[in-house]
Amino acid sequence: MATPQDVLHELGDPTRLRVLRAILAGRKNVTQIVAELGLAQPQVSYHLKRLKDVGLAVEEKQGRWVYYEANRASGDDRIRSLLSLLGHWLEGAPSVPPAAPPVVAKPESKPDDLEDFLL
After folding, report:
1. From CA 100, how far away is CA 83, in angstroms rounded?
2. Cys staple from 79: which of 31, 67, 74, 119, with CB 3.0 to 4.6 Å?
3. pLDDT, tens digit, for every residue of 32-47?
């Protein structure tokens, strides 16, 4: 069973929160989530696994498809309460933005001596 720290840690990732929001809206397979969020399939699968590992998501296999949804029927009332709260909270919120890429400062370029000579 996941600790509260584990669950909250998983919710701290913006991409994972976007994936959770997608499955809070209803049962979906990875292909549907990929299309909805514009993420790569391996990325979505990774985040679904992390959500599943802490009990926030469940999977159901149907033939060759695997569907995911929020674990609203969890045996842990804290998980059920948290998912209910997140469902209400994220319902009216603007979409969760993707994580911004890190800003890398570029060193100032110094002109080449040859370039100065030619000018």
Report:
1. 25
2. 74
3. 999 999 999 999 999 9
